[in-house]
UniProtKB/TrEMBL annotation:
Domain FAD/NAD(P)-binding: 60-185
Lineage of source species: Bacteria, Pseudomonadati, Campylobacterota, Epsilonproteobacteria, Campylobacterales
Pfam families cross-referenced by the UniProt entry: Pyr_redox_2
Organism listed in the record: Poseidonibacter parvus
Highest taxon, organism lineage: Bacteria
InterPro entries cross-referenced by the UniProt entry: FAD/NAD-bd_sf, FAD/NAD-binding_dom, Sulphide_quinone_reductase, TAT_signal
Name listed for the protein in its UniProt record: Sulfide:quinone reductase
Length: 489
């Protein structure tokens, strides 16, 4: 982001927060963003907040994954150890791309160039980067084997490899197989073609999503009656609000074109609710009703017929079964029905999983994710292994906002482990989802393991606000670039 753009954004933010009678500094402090205050003109405060007594603990630290989680952790470790010995293994040259911006690319607010960075530009001084992939793990011997065949040893291992987009699990997309957000999109784009099927979960397919969305809007604008459908799978996913965001933004573009009356927009979600936190669920339902959206719970996408532009969902519901005299209650039987849905435009949120080479290894778990203590982020079996971000088996929050809290906890606990001390830092499950509900409006959903709203700001968190749009579109990207990736924010 250019300096003048940031200045313009700050002027807008200032004008909004003055309406509620607080200063910029107070606003960002209340929003939990005080440590990134140097972006907002608070350089001395930021420096004072990040100065700490560096530890003299020694050990060879290996980080698997050079995305936001891995690189931020490396940066903070570098400034927290007097003699850091850190190596990052990452196969992609653009692994630290601003993934939270794919929704905005998909809706024409951002360009691809706004969110793609060069990994090397954010590599902390003194940290070694190996452009390769970890394919074998031997935690008993403290060794990792790379795709090249090279074996690396470590004293401490941090797994921050992100997750895999499991397109191949959907019938009709088997040829796509596994994909990655910042990885090659050629198989996905070839499979989708010009069918109206899209997915913003890869950077290049997010760009194509905007192309397909415009075609969809043009059809409606020209008088055609069109149908747009949006799926949410039966697995944990990164940014659980994103499948709804893209639907909201499609609606915004239709309204903008004066074509909303010609489009039917329907959301198909695998779960039985819109959001895990009741207050946000209720708010979203009201927003859906106000926008004349349709929705169906307990529908999981299983098949896509690209040629005929139809999708098949597994619809499920529970029915009363036989009566159990011992328990004095009826058993419940889950029923299934295939539901075929035609579409003109379809956004697929693919099933997601840990990369097989990690999830199915000795450091993985039966469910694939890396099993860690949800508070300390230490591996449940191997005490010199830690994990964070999308790949960690943490109950909620596969978001950048979660990582912003996790990486500081992990660094404190890793250094404690290196020093032979107790792990006292605790991750409280904080998650933030800036839920874009319109172009110019965002509902800032903050919560933790209590599954209750935990707002950082003295405003009703269930309300859509312009100020949160400014935060999402203008502030969070530079905070990520120059705050988290420097290990400070």
């Amino acid at each position: 982001m250019a300096k003048n753009e940031l200045d313009d954004a700050l002027e807008l933010v200032d004008s909004e927060i003055k309406k509620i009678g607080i200063s910029r500094r107070e606003a960002f402090k209340l929003a939990g963003l005080g440590s990134a205050a140097y972006l907002m003109g608070g350089t001395s405060e930021a420096q004072a907040a990040t100065v700490a007594q560096a530890s003299e603990a020694k050990g060879k630290i290996l980080i698997i994954g050079g995305g936001l989680a891995g690189m931020s952790t490396a940066a903070r470790l570098s400034s927290s150890l007097t003699t850091p010995d850190i190596t990052i293994v990452e196969p992609l040259s653009n692994s630290v791309s601003y993934q939270a911006g794919t929704t905005l690319v998909a809706s024409g607010v951002y360009e691809k160039s706004d969110i793609v960075y060069n990994t090397k530009d954010f590599l902390p001084a003194g940290v070694k980067l190996i452009k390769d992939k970890a394919v074998e793990f031997n935690p008993d011997a403290n060794k990792v084997v790379l795709g090249s065949g090279e074996t690396l040893s470590y004293d401490f291992l941090i797994i921050a490899a992100g997750l895999t987009l499991d397109f191949g699990r959907i019938k009709g997309l088997e040829e796509v197989g596994d994909a990655y957000t910042a990885g090659d999109a050629s198989k996905i784009l070839k499979a989708f073609g010009d069918s109206g099927i899209t997915s913003m979960y890869n950077i290049d397919t997010a760009t194509e999503t905007w192309t397909q969305m415009q075609k969809f809007v043009d059809k409606a604008k020209n008088g055609e009656k069109v149908k747009g459908i949006f799926s949410h799978p039966d697995t944990a996913i990164k940014c659980g609000g994103a499948p709804k965001k893209i639907m909201y933004l499609t609606n915004s573009r239709l309204v903008e074109a004066g074509a909303r009356d010609n489009a039917e927009l329907t959301y198909y979600v695998n779960s039985g609710k819109m959001f895990s936190v009741k207050e946000y669920h209720d708010a979203i339902v009201k927003q859906f009703e106000a926008r004349d959206f349709k929705w169906n719970y307990k529908h999981n996408l299983t098949t896509v017929d690209i040629q005929n532009k139809t999708a098949i969902f597994d619809k499920r519901w529970d029915e009363k079964g036989p009566y159990d005299e011992d328990l004095e209650e009826y058993s419940m039987i889950t029923k299934h029905q295939e539901v075929e849905v035609p579409f003109d435009f379809m956004h697929i949120t693919p099933p997601m999983k840990a990369p097989d080479e990690i999830g199915s290894s000795a450091v993985g778990s039966g469910k694939g994710w890396v099993p860690v203590n949800k508070e300390t982020l230490q591996h449940v079996k191997y005490k010199n292994i830690f994990s964070l971000g999308d790949i960690a088996a943490v109950p909620m929050g596969k978001t950048g906002g979660s990582v912003r809290k996790q990486y500081k906890v992990l660094v404190d606990n890793l250094i404690a482990a290196m020093e032979g001390k107790e792990l006292n830092a605790k991750y409280a499950g904080y998650t933030v989802c800036p839920l874009i509900t319109d172009i110019g409006k965002v509902m800032l959903a903050e919560f933790d393991w209590t599954k209750k709203p935990t707002p950082s700001f003295p405003l009703d968190p269930t309300q859509e606000r312009y100020i949160w749009w400014l935060l999402k579109v203008y502030m969070l990207k530079p905070m990520t670039q120059y705050g988290m990736l420097s290990g400070k924010a």
